[in-house]
Amino acid sequence: LSAREPGLSAYGASKARAEKLVEASGLDWTIVRPPGVYGPRDVDYFEMFRSARFGFVPLPPGGASSIIHVTDLARLLLALVDAPPALVRRRVFEPDDAREGGWSHKELARAIGKAVGRPVFAPHLPRSVLDAAAKVDRMVRGDKARLTADRVGYMTHPNWVARSAMKVPEAVWSPSVSGEEGLAATARWYRDNGWL
Fold this sequence. Notes:
By secondary structure, the protein is mainly alpha-helical. It has a single domain (2-183), classed as Rossmann fold. 44% of the residues lie in helices and 9% in strands. Helix 2 crosses helix 5 (105-116) and helix 5 crosses helix 8 (179-192). It is globular.
């Protein structure tokens, strides 16, 4: 979804440039803008699961986002290959887990806490605190920093909810993994594989 807001991060700018190149290519195309992708082996959402295990999940300023389980995203990409061209060509899709309005940051933190079996304290941190944390992470981990200035720009945007007007036609695909079910399964995978 970062292509919607290219000014927030180099990552989003690169996605927006890629979309423009694809749209101008003269080829048949379909663009998929996934929201937050989570599931087994994911390292980005893993940080929230690990933090939730200790009952504390720091959040960016208030906002909401959509999520999608990696299995559902993979199913969608495969479904698009053989989908009727009239339904998918020259269209941009924003898939999600079918949760209307997405998840507020606090709702997602609480759901992850429930998935790991812990109630969580989930305070919203001001942008200034996140910017300072990104500088510290850069000093400590150098090029391996997880919290970068670019990521802070992305995280602090208040709306990463998939738009219903850009939903994939149900004749092509619909999500099969609810957020609650997927988060619980992801927590199980992390535990079973020694990550949590």
